[in-house]
Design brief:
This protein has 2 domains: 112 residues, K Homology domain, type 1 (Ribosomal Protein S8, Chain: A, domain 1, 2-Layer Sandwich), CATH 3.30.1370; 101 residues, K Homology domain, type 1 (Ribosomal Protein S8, Chain: A, domain 1), CATH 3.30.1370. The chain is 47% helix and 23% strand. The chain is built from 9 helices and 10 strands. The strands form 3 sheets. A 5-stranded antiparallel sheet has the order 1-2-5-7-6. Strands 8-10-9 form a 3-stranded antiparallel sheet, sandwiched between helices. The chain has a two-stranded antiparallel sheet with strand order 3-4. A hairpin with a 2-residue loop joins strand 1 and strand 2.
Length: 220
């Protein structure tokens, strides 16, 4: 058995040699032995499955995967459905499952089907420890009254943000997700909300200007 590490994902292949395409000799995943393992809270299993299994089927169809769910334990196994299933397909399926596990609706999680979108997960405990009162205080600063702060962060960046248990999860493109992550870290550190908003405004403006410049520089 060996492990292929792709970005943030580990894909376990229970075979010494990968299958070779008879024509081109290219390595492929072996159906039935290539798997990604995930675990979600049992209370989120129903969201992942959807009414009559609709959500799970849609993930499988759009990522060319097979997803097996143990409803009692929350254990998830993701496998390629076809030999044409790619590593990117598997990663997209994994990220959609993880996004739903961290509080996103399936509709928002499906944004991860786009090639430029990433999932960033921030565990507040890594910054403030395990004391419940510290976690509650910090999450309160990120959520705001009636969710006001979270909504402002989303509107300023165009990202999707979910606060679930001790986690802050972000769906956005790579550059925007880094901006949101730093903004969340600033709130955890105790920076004022106005300071954080100014930081986001400055960084998003700089990012947009840089992207416009790069667009103009592209050859016709």
């Amino acid at each position: 058995m060996f492990i292929i590490t792709l970005w943030w994902c580990k894909i376990v292949i229970s075979s010494v040699n990968s299958h070779k395409d008879q024509e081109g000799g290219q390595g492929r995943f072996i159906l039935g032995v290539t798997r990604i393992y995930e675990k979600i809270s049992p209370e989120r299993v129903g969201v992942l499955l959807g009414n009559g299994g609709r959500v799970k089927r849609e993930i499988e169809e759009k990522t060319k995967t097979i997803i097996t769910v143990d409803s009692s334990s929350g254990s998830i196994v993701i496998e390629p459905a076809f030999q044409s299933t790619t590593a990117l397909d598997l990663i997209k399926a994994q990220n959609i499952v993880r996004a739903i596990a961290h509080g996103f609706s399936p509709e928002k999680a499906f944004r991860l089907l786009e090639d430029d979108q990433v999932l960033e997960i921030i565990d507040v405990r890594q910054y403030v420890g395990d004391k419940p009162n510290h976690i509650k205080r910090v999450l309160g600063r990120i959520i705001g009254e009636n969710g006001k702060v979270r909504k402002i962060l989303e509107e300023m960046t165009g990202a999707y943000i979910s606060i679930y248990e001790t986690y802050v999860a972000v769906i956005a493109d790579y550059e925007v997700s880094n901006i949101v992550k730093r903004a969340v870290e600033m709130l955890i550190e105790g920076r004022t909300h106005s300071t954080v908003y100014k930081y986001i405004d400055r960084e998003i403006f700089s990012l947009k200007r840089r992207r416009i410049t790069e667009l103009w520089r592209k050859p016709p």
